Amino acid sequence: MALIEVLDLSLAFRDKIILNNVSFEINKSERLAIIGGNGSGKSSLGRLIAGWHVNAVSSGNVLFEGRPWKEYSNSERASAIQLVGQIPVQHLSGRAFTVEEEIAFGPENLGLTAHEIRTRVDFAVNATNLGHLLSRSPFSLSGGEQQRLVIAASLALKPQVLVLDEPFTNLDPESRDAMLSVLDGLSSDLTIVLLETNPSLAATLAERFIFLDDSALIADSNAREVLFNSQLVERLGLPAVTNAIVSFLGVDHHLAHRATVPLSSAEFDAFIESLNNVKN
Question: What are the structural domains of the chain?
Fold first, then answer.
């Protein structure tokens, strides 16, 4: 059984269709990118996946471990899935004086023992490299540090799923790279759903891609198949490294070169190394 099932999901607000009959499954430990332009419906879909606003759907359902979100309490949902948006300050409790207190806030509200809270805080701090910031005020941190803090606070709840809604949008390149490193280092048991408009960033993290356009699911496959979808290329373009190589080689993106053209920085490095090996 899939961890999450999205079943014929439709959502409308007034006369605007936001999601139109969307269906797919998410399996445990997957790293999935839901990619689309602004207004494609991906953020609304992310909130519904995370169990938010489930009473607003026009039709369809979202199941977690075979049960609709409506059957879960708030604490059960918080322990199962966490949603992190692009503006980290909106996710801070406002009740913590230090980074350490912010991370402990969620587990404390679950009524856990002091020992379990300490264990979870230590785990989250180590996962996000925040040990040197524990005594700082959450509101004194940079945007990148705040985003790591929000992810740490989410991890302290030990969710099975982490939904990230354009988490890199307001980060400078250095903070973005640090965040990608943190996410890439998270446990392989954690299911990650990344909502993104940027194919380059999504290709760095995700293995499976869903492409949304005009409120509908257009493609659902591995990264290479989806990122070369003609409709996606027209809307969002290719990942930066892919575009550079395609332009350099002078080939059309529809051609068979797509089987080897790099999609991410790591694949680009391997591609260059292979060229050097051929020369040698």
Answer: 4-237 (3.40.50.300)
